[in-house]
Amino acid sequence: xxxxxxxxxxxxxxxxxxxxxxxxxxxxxxxxxxxxxxxxxxxxxxxxxxxxxxxxxxxxxxxxxxxxxxxxxxxxxxxxxxxxxxxxxxxxxxxxxxxxxxxxxxxxxxxxxxxxxxxxxxxxxxxxxxxxxxxxxxxxxxxxxxxxxxxxxxxxxxxxxxxxxxxxxxxxxxxxxxxxxxxxxxxxxxxxxxxxxxxxxxxxxxxxxxxxxxxxxx
Length: 218
Prior knowledge:
The protein is mainly α.
C-alpha cells in the first residue's frame, strides 16, 4: 500500500512589519530617549506588540543595535572613487562618522558601550586602517592616526549634539575682567562647534598626517 504524500503545511500569518520597520522604530527611540532607557520592551511597546513577538524579528538587543548602526551609517554615505587619494578616502570616512555622531549621539553612546564583538564601528576602523597602511604609514603610526581621526569625529559630533544653545548668553554672564577674551567673542563663540570648524580641524589633521608620512621614518 503506497503512502499518501504529506499535506503541505499551512503557512503562518504574514508578519505585520518588516525587519527594517522594526529597526527604524528602534533608531527613532534611541534618538528621542536616554541611551540607558533603550530596551527591547520599549521597542515592542512602540510597535504595539509583545516582547516575545519582537523576538520573531530580531534575536537580541545587540542585534538591534547592530542593525540600527547599519541604518545610520547608510544615510547619505558617498563612497569615494577607487582612484581617490588616501587623504580624500580618509576625509570621506571621518566626515561621515562625524555626521552620524552629530545626528545620532545616543546611538554612538550605545555602540561604544557594547561589550560584544559586533562589527559596528569596526568596519570603519578597518577601512581607515587599511587606507593608512596602503598610503605608506607604518602599522603603529597608522593605528595611532586611525585612533586620532576616529576620536576626533566622535568627540566633535558629541560636542555638537550636546552643546548648549545659550552659550553666548552664559558667556556674557561671566565677569569680563576675568574672561576678557571669551566675552569679546561671546556672539560668535558657538561657531567653534560648527561644521565649518569641524572641517577646519579635519584639514589640519590630514595636513599633519601628510607631513608625518613624508618625514623620515614615517
